[in-house]
Design goal:
The protein is of the alpha/beta class. The chain is built from seven helices and 20 strands. The protein is globular. The two termini are about 40 Å apart. Its EC number is 3.2.1.4. Keywords: Carbohydrate metabolism, Cellulose degradation, Glycosidase, Hydrolase, Polysaccharide degradation, Signal.
Length: about 525
């Protein structure tokens, strides 16, 4: 997730062990067309496929594996394949997957995967879920870029290592992942570390620098060590290296009487990469990456320029665009996004897309984000994890190169996939109440709100059609969103009505209704009823 250059990163105290993986047997290659065939390389400022054909990655970020959930968010809301189907149909040909070392630990557990919505993911490790996503995305012609987003799920870090996750663990885990996917060209490479940035103040900075020569802080040197170690075990991968925020590794300090250097977004400053390039032992595998955000995410001085937005291309040229324009290396804009609630942000996004260019020779990018629960940007889909934000999509659409194998170019999703095989949709008209059992699970809680699931099993002998589930919440708790049913609120009662595409709850079948709410998670929801009958 993006952060501004002047913010302070959280450190971590967890201990990370070596990842244990088993190689895949897949030999499938991406479909001809949008993302080319075989493994990817570079030629000047262009990514090319195994046949030397130009390829442009026009992708999206689907986060969650870097958080405490340790797997993709939204798996509580709809079937995992539906997400990928819709991404491909909208034209996103690449999926950037953030992860943390915690998701790679032996014994790591994926959280908040709804059993009713995604029964085939139950009991799988985070890596096993990732394997399924990789395999299915490959059938759509999509590519996967792995992004080491955080050293632990606790938060981002200025340096590529913290005490709990030393550089040796970082490199070892990357090598294991590279070996794991060595025979699967759907996975194209490693985004080595997300948003290295300054810490402390110049001239006594303690964060990531670029070209300063300090082996403990020079991100360029660390990227070389990691990139070359990865290429030893998987010479086919692209090595994606993000920028820093301030080349010195220290934040600007107006009181030190030292002229301040140009600083940008975390991970967004590659101004020194031309002078101090990343040197890999294998040619044509280096891709630089920058992050870029609008004024609503953080107010930068250039947003006040009277020439805005026409002043932006010169700023982008300075920070990272020159690498493409001078044919040095490809640049992937790995994160950029906004809620677009500000008219100024709309101008910013339109200017950025124009700057990156159209067609297969334009700059590569992965938009932030698919997820609606990115607090400062929102997502391409809304809180129901399905409805497309057409304002955003319409700006991005002309620049997208759809993967070959994607279907339904309108981006809409057939509701049939969301129907669980255990749910009867027969219009029998039986509104019987029978009997039921219920469980309430708090999946996540934070200051001011929580996420929960109410699971009800029809233990009667007949289908309940249509079904309606109610439960009681404490006074002051308000509904934020719901899924797997039409969820509404009246006073302290939440009601989940069977959706039109699956109105019936068959005898012996269960349904899990997810929701988020504003207010305390304790006491938990109670008094669950199915069509007016109290569940045990």
């Amino acid at each position: 997730m993006r952060r501004l250059w002047a913010a302070v990163a959280a450190s971590s105290l967890a201990v990370v062990g070596a990842v244990v993986v088993i190689g895949l047997n897949s030999t499938a290659s991406a479909a001809v067309g949008g993302t080319g065939t075989g493994y990817l390389s570079t030629r000047g400022n262009q990514i090319i496929d195994a046949g030397g054909n130009p390829v442009r990655l026009t992708g999206i970020n689907w986060f969650g594996m870097e958080t405490d959930n340790k797997t993709f968010h939204g798996l509580w809301a709809r079937p995992w394949r539906d997400h990928i189907d819709q991404m491909a149909s909208l034209g996103y040909n690449t999926l950037r997957v953030p992860f943390s070392e915690d998701a790679l630990k032996p014994g790591a557990t994926a959280n908040s995967v709804d059993g009713y919505t995604n029964p085939d993911l139950q009991g799988l490790t985070p890596l096993q879920i990732l394997d399924k996503v990789v395999a299915y995305a490959g059938t759509k012609g999509m590519r996967i870029l792995l992004d080491r987003h955080r050293p632990t799920s606790a938060g981002q870090s200025a340096l590529w290592y913290v005490s709990a996750t030393p550089e040796s663990t970082w490199i070892s885990n990357w090598r294991s992942l590279a070996q794991h996917y060595a025979n699967n060209p759907t996975v194209v490479g490693a985004d080595l570390h997300n948003e290295p940035h300054a810490d402390g103040t110049d001239p006594n900075g303690t964060g990531s620098c670029w070209g300063c020569g300090d082996v403990n802080r020079d991100w360029r040197l660390a990227a070389e060590r990691a990139g070359n170690a990865i290429l030893e075990v998987n010479p086919n991968w692209l090595i994606v290296v993000e920028g820093v925020s301030c080349p010195s590794g220290g934040n600007a300090n107006a009181w030190d009487n030292i002229p301040d250097e140009p600083c940008g977004w975390w991970g967004g400053n590659l101004s020194k990469a031309g002078q101090f390039p990343v040197r890999l032992n294998k040619a044509n595998k280096l891709v630089y990456s920058a992050h870029e955000y609008g004024n609503s995410v953080y107010h930068q001085a250039w947003f006040d320029d009277p020439a805005f937005p026409n002043n932006l291309p010169a700023i982008w040229d300075q920070f990272w665009g020159y690498l493409e324009k001078q044919n040095i290396a490809p640049v992937l804009v790995g994160e950029f996004g906004s809620t677009l609630q500000s008219p100024q942000d709309v101008l910013w996004l339109k200017k950025l897309m124009e700057y990156m260019g159209t067609g297969v020779t334009g700059m590569d990018f992965t938009y932030w984000s698919w997820n609606p629960n990115s607090g400062d940007t929102g997502g391409i889909v809304g809180d129901d994890w399905k409805t497309v934000n057409q304002q955003k999509q319409s700006i991005l659409q002309p620049y997208l190169i759809p993967p070959v194998g994607g279907t339904n170019p309108t981006g809409s999703v057939s509701p049939s996939r969301s129907v669980s095989p255990s749910v009867s949709t027969s219009p029998s008209g039986n509104t019987g109440t029978g009997s039921c059992t219920a469980t309430v699970r708090i999946d996540n809680a934070w200051q001011g709100g929580y996420q929960a699931a109410v699971t009800v099993k029809n233990t009667g002998s007949a289908a309940v059609n249509p079904f309606s589930i109610t439960w009681t919440v404490p006074s002051g708790v308000t509904l934020a969103s719901g899924w797997n049913a039409t969820v509404t609120q009246s006073g302290t009662t939440f009601t989940a009505a069977g959706p039109s595409w699956a109105p019936s709850l068959a005898a012996g079948a269960s349904v899990s209704v997810g929701f988020t709410a504003n207010g305390p998670s304790t006491p938990a929801p109670s008094n669950v009823k199915l069509n007016g009958v109290t569940c045990s």
